[in-house]
Amino acid sequence: MPGRSRVVAAGFLLPALLLLGALVVYPIGYSVRRSLFDRSDASFVGLDNYLALVTDDSLRTAVRNNLIWLVVAPAVATALGLVFAVLTERVRWGTAFKLVVFMPMAISMLAAGIIFRLVYEQDPDRGVANAVWVGVHDTFAESSGFPRARPLPVHPLKAAGGGAFVTKEPVRAGVPVLLPLVGVAPAQMPQDARPARTPHATGTGTGTGTGTGTGAGAGTGAGTGADITGTAWLDFTRGGGGKPNVVDPKELGLKGLRIEAVRDGKVVATATAAADGSFSLPADRADGAVLRLPASNFREQYDGVEWLGPSLVTPAVIGAYVWMWAGFAMVLIGAGLAAVPRELLEAARVDGANEWQVFRRITVPLLAPVLVVVLVTLMINVLKVFDLVFVIAPGSAQDDANVLALQLYRSSFGTDADLGVGSAIAVVLLLLVLPVMVVNIRRIRRESRR
């Protein structure tokens, strides 16, 4: 009997309908009503809470970032999934690769956020991203050995502009040169640096010259007049007791320090300090010149990119999202790729098409329904993204990384909670998701009719 069948069907559907109404319909209706009232739920304010989405700076930022997420994240994740799915078909270890790429899906958003918060750490010794970035940078542009090193006023050096230092007086053949510096942390000293050698005077003929220093390197040496010698060292004795401008036994040489002899604005000779800080310059070129310690010795070490700074925090969080969801896209696209008729691909190759043409003109069009499914699913997902932004973005950059779901939480449960604005954001999110869901439902119905 048709009437009895309807009653039986309604009886079976009733529990599900009650549950759906309690968990979905009622919260939606309450949120719509609450969005029309003020903070205290006492006064009707109409659309004022919705207008706040346009006038408030943090809410405008959230809307802008959600649009960036909506355009970038699904497209990049789908494109990577497509590339992975196509390429893994051609390698023996494709299954293992798919397993590795899909594995992040087993990790919760909270755990992934904690992982990438560490990956994006500014300190290269802790953050993987900056460790790699700094390593690549230093391969092509070596960092300075002694950042923040400087002379004291009593030292025979003075600032020359641009971060360089020069000797206060020109150097002369036969007179040892002292280049003392301070401000080098023990951890920044070269590990193979040795106790500084006291420079000794060199004669101008072939006789002998007596050393003038008081350190362990004092003594006599044959002077040929060929070189101007000196020592560059850290003029600081740990524990105290050292004297300025004197090479004390416990003070180390500044290995690798670059020294230039400059005359009339031109570099006429260069030298690099040895492990004990000693260096030498040819007297025929350096005699009468001033010695310069170029700024390249003292520039700050490159610390990498501020991934979680105001300008890069949103792309950084999107990168974490793509890391998680590219595997999901790859698996779905791979399933669709397995259903593609191989004879079509082989026919195209026989007709002279190269691999790029086969991929662009045959593989991608045949995978279009699967790609739409993946893209729409990810678009719905990114409109609700909250966990990654909340965990990865530090407090100082959360306003710059703000999205609607995060702003919903902050407006509803933050220190200055306003449930009216929070409910308005929830309704806007629902309105943004509905068109995507409608498109997806229509597509599913068209597929079922075929």
UniProtKB/TrEMBL annotation:
Membrane topology reported for the UniProt record: Multi-pass membrane protein
Record's keyword terms, sorted: Cell membrane, Membrane, Transmembrane, Transmembrane helix, Transport
Entry-linked SUPFAM superfamilies: MetI-like (SSF161098)
Main location: membrane
Localisation per UniProt entry: Cell membrane
A matching Pfam family: BPD_transp_1
UniProt-listed PROSITE patterns: ABC_TM1 (PS50928)
Cellular component GO terms held in the UniProt record: plasma membrane
Residues annotated as transmembrane: 7-29, 67-87, 99-120, 320-341, 362-383, 419-441
Superkingdom of the source species: Bacteria
Region (Disordered): 190-223
ABC transmembrane type-1 domain sequence ranges: 63-440
GO BP annotations, alphabetical order: transmembrane transport
Biased composition (Gly residues): 204-223
Entry's family note: Belongs to the binding-protein-dependent transport system permease family.
Protein name: ABC transporter permease
